[in-house]
Amino acid sequence: MTRQAAPTESLRDRQVRIQVCTILLLSILCAPFLSSADEPAADLQESGRLLVILLDSGRVTIGRNQALLNDASKADKGFTPDVFAAQTIAEFKERTGYDLNNLSEAKVPSMAKPLLERLLEESKKTVASYQTVLNMPGVGYKGLIPATFGTETGTRFQNWSGLYLKQTAPERFLRNPKNKADSFEAAEMQKMADPTFPRDGKHIVTAVAGDGGSVRDLLPLFYEKSCMSCHGTPKGERDITGYPREGGHEGELGGVISVKIDRSRAGAPPMADGVPGRR
Ligand code: HEC
Questions:
Q1: Residue ranges in the chain modelled with pLDDT below 70
Q2: Is 40 near ligand 1, meaning CB less than 6 Å away?
Q3: pLDDT digit string, tens, across residues 37-81
Q4: 205-208 and 164-168 strand pairing
Q5: Ligand 1 atom closest to 255 (CA)
Q6: Which of 230, 239, 245, 252 maximizes ligand 1 atoms within 8 Å of its Cβ, making it the mutation to test the pocket?
Q7: In 53-90, which positions are buried (b, 16+ CB within 10 angstroms) versus exposed (e)?
Q8: Which atom of ligand 1 is nearest to the CA of 169?
Q9: Distance 220 CA to ligand 1 centre (A)
Q10: I need a surface site. Which of 41, 232, 241, 255 has the fewest CB within 10 A?
Q11: Which residues of 12-43 are buried (b: 16+ CB within 10 A; e: fewer)?
């Protein structure tokens, strides 16, 4: 009897040992995901991701309306800040699932809410600033294109928040010197330009910067057919905006929308003017 009991007990011991080992192993493997120390960085990265998508949604909306905006035969274009906002909100919702009309219900990091609301406001202000020229009959190109929208809105938003948001391009495609890439952007763009990098434009690179002091989100912009009238060929010949064409090709990386958020902003209470974590 005792001899028969021995193997049974040791089998049970072994089962317990395996269970303990499994739990230990799982907790080691899962530690990076459970650690609360990483939560602020995750919130910052998600906030940055949503901000670059919102700026791009505005660019896309301007691009979709380009023929209307450039129509010299028409005076009132009806492209008011509210019309622009409704289309941008729809684009953003399709890409993220979040409704900017109802952010209080959305499961986005709390620090992102005032930032997204303000970026939409600043985007509308850019469109508002073009209303007079937009509604002038007899004028074709009026200076409002996705790129100028992006540069002006990014600057305006940055002035309010102190948060770095811009569009930049690889050196050989760079037009506006104010948009020049920093070393992190230049290195990441080199990787994105590689043909193995997904070309769908939805593959946002998110990272904690080398010094660990900030998080970065980069949304790649690949040249499409619609970009070629300005950034394509013949190289050197001036486009409608007056810049020389760069000789770019469809599918090439034209640039990125880039955001950088200091980690010190995480969890910091908003200032009186609503800016999350500004020091
Ligand atoms: C109507 C001409 C035109 C078209 C079409 C156009 N761009 Fe541009 N692009 C410009 C101009 C002008 C600037 C410089 C804007 C500024 O002054 O900040 C620019 C700037 C940029 C920048 C910012 C970096 C820099 O060089 O200053 C990126 C990135 C960019 N374009 C990508 C694209 C992509 C991608 C497309 C197509 C989806 C596109 N552009 C379509 C004219 C155009």
A1: 1-12, 15-39, 201, 210, 266-275, 277-279
A2: no
A3: 455 788 999 999 999 999 999 999 999 999 999 999 999 999 999
A4: unpaired
A5: 29
A6: 230
A7: bbbbbbbbbbbebeeebbeeeeeebebbbeebbebbbe
A8: 24
A9: 13
A10: 241
A11: eeeeeeeeeeeeeeeeeeeeeeeeeeeebbeb
224 lines ligand 1 (CB under 6 A): yes
What's the CA gap between 96 and 116, in Å, rounded?
13
Residues in Cβ contact with 136 at an 8 Å cutoff, skipping those fewer than 6 apart: 75, 142
Structure tokens that stand for 139 in this block: 């004028």
Residue 208 burial by Cβ neighbours in a 10 Å radius (0-12, 13-18, 19+): middle
Predicted local distance difference test score (pLDDT) of residue 253: 96
For residues 103 and 113, give the distance between their C-alpha atoms in angstroms, rounded to a whole number: 7
Q: Is the CB of 142 under 6 A from ligand 1?
A: no
- What is the DSSP code (8-state) at residue 242? S
> For residue 157, what are the contacts with CB-CB under 8 A and spacing of at least 6?
118, 119, 122, 163, 165
- Separation of alpha carbons 264 and 279, rounded Å: 9
Closest residue (by CA) to atom 13 of ligand 1? Answer: 147
